[in-house]
Amino acid sequence: MIDDMDRTILRTLELDGRLSNTALAAKVGLSQSACLRRVQALEDAGIIKGYRAILDRSKLGGGLKVYVAVGLSRHLKEDQTAFERAMDTAREVRECHNVSGTVEYLLHVEVHDLAAYKHFHTEVLGTVPQVASITSYFVMASSKDERG
Length: 148
Prior knowledge:
The protein is of the alpha+beta class.
């Protein structure tokens, strides 16, 4: 069970996972040893799953962000598994979520430009036999993004 101090530590690390233990302890108002024990306990419990660098994809040739709603032709486990395997190997797919609603999957796709997305749409999604429908939502701007 986590308490308010653990939640404060988690919020602080979500904003800056590179904080040293000394800086984190100062920000949350704990001694360094108490802070370190809490962070290690959160890691051991699997609440903190890891730390990662957040990249500016536009500077790496990923300037176009698209959310793609994908409907499958059948609602069978084997079809879901096959689709997920195909998305695991698609380098354009940053996230693949099985969702409820009118479609089975929501993808977060990042590519260089519209031509690269057309290639992904046709040559990747268009070749997966389980896919019945594709609806693309192009991101115009993002006013908030707290993903780590």
